[in-house]
Design a protein that fits this description.
This protein is an alpha+beta fold. The protein has one domain (3-127). Helix content is 45%, strand content 20%. It has 4 helices and 4 strands. It has helices at 3-24, 34-51, 96-109, 123-127, and strands at 57-64, 67-74, 85-89, 113-117. A 4-stranded mixed beta sheet has the order 1-2-4-3, with helices on one face. Strand 3 (85-89), helix 3 (96-109) and strand 4 form a beta-alpha-beta unit. The longest helix is centred in the N-terminal third of the chain and has 22 residues, at 3-24. The protein is globular and about 45 Å long. The N and C termini lie far apart (36 Å). The model is unreliable at 1-12 (pLDDT under 50).
Length: 130
């Protein structure tokens, strides 16, 4: 990543955090019409940052029953070296993007690749797929 990409990624990650925190307390009322649009804003911010990661944060879709589970494969680097991989899923109404900051980033810094994903009733699954 060049310096412009790093700066852009940092900015997008900060914006993601602001959007994510805005939506956090909306889950008190699951019928709040702002939940999906606010989730989309935070998701879009994270995707912008992921797109600046030179392929080190890759969106994935994991087949599950009649749908797919959304997630991200987060890599230490792009050189293809075999590394231990952690598989982490969120709980409650958490998101894969949230897991990146809470788990994946720290594991990557320690040499682990990380697959993070959302299960049924979480993140995109509950907000978009229903």
């Amino acid at each position: 990543m060049n310096r412009t990409d790093i700066s852009g990624s940092v900015f997008q990650n900060q914006e993601f955090n602001f959007q994510f925190l805005e939506s956090w307390y909306m889950d008190i009322n699951p019928d709040d019409p702002r939940i999906v649009s606010t989730w989309e804003k935070s998701h879009d911010c994270f995707m912008k940052a992921a797109n600046l990661s030179s392929g080190l944060i890759r969106p994935v879709r994991i087949p599950f029953q009649n749908t797919t589970l959304p997630g991200y494969l987060c890599l230490v680097d792009g050189n293809g070296t075999s590394r231990p991989t952690l598989i982490v899923h969120t709980g409650f109404d958490g998101t894969g993007e949230e897991l990146y900051f809470g788990v994946a980033k720290f594991a990557i810094d320690r040499g682990y690749n990380v697959l993070i994903f959302e299960g049924p009733g979480q993140g995109e699954m509950i907000r978009v797929q229903g």
